């Protein structure tokens, strides 16, 4: 309780005294607690008396003390929340992403004196780079000056803060200030490895192919290449090429673990030990370069290859597939389906746990190479593949081929299907898919734990088939649980097969659609089902996030 007393003193004379005062209620409760603990709550060696409430005098005091503790704890939480909210409002007025992510105490001590000098240098429109390349995070731009004035207090920052450099280059007038800030930051970071992100707008108005004003910043980063630990570049192609121009003189990059660019950088222009690379994201590259990267980066665990293409006239299939034993996460974003057979035929990935096929940049309607994919899965013996995701327009896939594809991956635990486009792009997501589930045997995707569907109007499947699917899934759960208990009543270990499933359905409802979008009788069955403990189901509006089951429940009750 001495700590509680200390809390009272801190509350009345803490660092926020100038801006925030403890409420009278909180101060009164602290004094009451001190009184109860030091006097009223002390046990005396005399005959125990029973109060009117049925408790002895000591127990009654303890109960009162417990109630006051809970009340005070609640009031203190409210007070802290009010202080934190007020501080965040002040910080938000600065419009700077870095300050918003720093500890509140540091913001008060170092940044508030210069807050009036900070302007909004981070327009929201410049986030487009991270939207187009989602794996690249956009945060903490070094585009303001207060850091230069901070002095020795900056040493209180964690090492991770010193290692992270996120540079946004999009205004020529800011480059001199950014150069000074960047140089000072790197010098103060001493010899720590650097996690670097450099981004600039891809707007043709804001940055033309002839504009090279971000190059001075790139040159500073390049001069410290030996310290690169993570490098993320979301720049115009001519700037990336300028950054790596003459890179034969670059030092070794012994620390590089993550290398992400929005274009392909030729391997012979980077003198790095690719065997140390763990994360690699590149775009605009040919299939043969994908295989070359994987051969060089033998320890890579996560790879994203976007804008993949293939020149069938010049492409030569190697004698043996490339075997990569470390790769766990692979995302492919081809421009045409010609590149997929070449990739699937060249690779063997026995450790793959996540496979994403992103067709948002896909052109043409050439049939999806289902046979090549199945051969790849069999060759790789992907017994640990747990996540499979399809993104984009997939008019070339039929429901038969898709079922065949899923049957070849029985280990799947997370299945995500997010597509956009015309109705024909949903030829593969029909009632037949849902009919594969069910039955006590549960042979179809027996380990499935999460099913995420993102569909648009008109629905490619019927609500009746979806309801039957839910009932069959529930029945299979009950059958599995029953069999487990009957086979070994003393075994408390869970079955290796699914015993719970998370189903999320995001609907893209047309703007001219009038509620309810889901038929009332369907809503009633979804809301009043008996399988809620076995299945977590959420159906929401893709645009607003509204829970459609709860939204349309009044319509269902009237049905």
From TrEMBL:
Entry protein name: Uncharacterized protein
Organism this protein belongs to: Gymnopilus junonius (Spectacular rustgill mushroom)
């Amino acid at each position: 309780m001495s700590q509680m007393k200390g809390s009272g003193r801190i509350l009345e004379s803490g660092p926020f005294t100038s801006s925030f005062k403890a409420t009278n209620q909180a101060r009164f409760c602290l004094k009451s607690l001190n009184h109860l603990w030091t006097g009223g709550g002390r046990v005396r060696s005399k005959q125990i008396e029973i109060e009117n409430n049925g408790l002895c005098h000591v127990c009654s005091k303890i109960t009162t003390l417990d109630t006051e503790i809970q009340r005070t704890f609640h009031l203190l939480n409210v007070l802290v929340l009010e202080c934190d909210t007020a501080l965040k409002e002040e910080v938000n007025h600065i419009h700077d992403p870095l300050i918003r992510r720093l500890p509140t105490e540091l913001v008060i001590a170092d940044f508030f004196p210069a807050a009036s000098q900070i302007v909004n240098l981070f327009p929201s429109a410049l986030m487009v780079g991270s939207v187009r390349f989602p794996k690249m995070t956009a945060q903490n731009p070094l585009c303001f000056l207060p850091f230069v004035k901070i002095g020795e207090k900056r040493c209180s920052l964690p090492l991770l803060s010193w290692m992270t450099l996120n540079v946004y280059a999009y205004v020529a007038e800011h480059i001199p200030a950014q150069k000074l800030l960047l140089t000072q930051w790197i010098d103060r970071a001493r010899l720590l490895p650097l996690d670097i992100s450099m981004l600039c707008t891809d707007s043709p108005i804001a940055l033309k192919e002839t504009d090279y004003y971000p190059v001075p910043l790139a040159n500073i980063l390049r001069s410290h290449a030996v310290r690169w630990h993570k490098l993320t570049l979301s720049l115009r192609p001519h700037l990336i090429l300028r950054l790596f121009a003459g890179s034969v003189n670059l030092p070794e990059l012994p620390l590089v673990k993550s290398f992400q660019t929005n274009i392909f950088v030729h391997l012979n222009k980077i003198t790095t030990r690719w065997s140390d690379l763990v994360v690699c994201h590149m775009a605009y590259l040919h299939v043969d370069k994908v295989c070359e990267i994987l051969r060089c980066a033998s320890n890579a665990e996560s790879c994203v290859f976007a804008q993949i293409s293939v020149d069938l006239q010049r492409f030569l299939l190697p004698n043996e597939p490339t075997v990569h034993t470390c790769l766990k996460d692979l995302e492919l974003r081809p421009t045409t389906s010609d590149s997929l057979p070449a990739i699937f035929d060249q690779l063997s990935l026995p450790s793959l746990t996540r496979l994403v096929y992103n067709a948002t940049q896909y052109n043409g309607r050439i049939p999806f190479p289902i046979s090549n994919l199945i051969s790849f899965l069999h060759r790789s013996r992907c017994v640990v593949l747990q996540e499979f995701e399809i993104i984009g327009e997939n008019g070339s896939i039929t429901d038969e081929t898709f079922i065949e594809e899923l049957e070849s991956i029985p280990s799947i635990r997370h299945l995500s299907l997010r597509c956009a486009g015309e109705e024909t792009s949903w030829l593969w997501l029909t009632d037949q898919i849902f009919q594969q589930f069910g039955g006590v045997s549960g042979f179809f995707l027996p380990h499935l734990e999460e099913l995420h569907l993102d569909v648009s109007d008109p629905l490619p499947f019927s609500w009746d088939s979806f309801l039957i699917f839910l009932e069959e899934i529930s029945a299979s759960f009950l059958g599995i649980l029953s069999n487990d208990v009957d086979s070994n009543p003393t075994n408390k270990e869970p079955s290796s097969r699914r015993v719970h499933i998370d189903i999320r359905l995001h609907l893209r409802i047309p703007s001219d659609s009038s509620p309810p979008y889901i038929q009332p009788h369907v809503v009633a069955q979804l809301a009043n089902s008996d399988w809620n403990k076995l299945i977590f189901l959420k159906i929401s509006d893709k645009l607003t996030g509204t829970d459609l089951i709860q939204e349309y429940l009044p319509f269902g009750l009237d049905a």
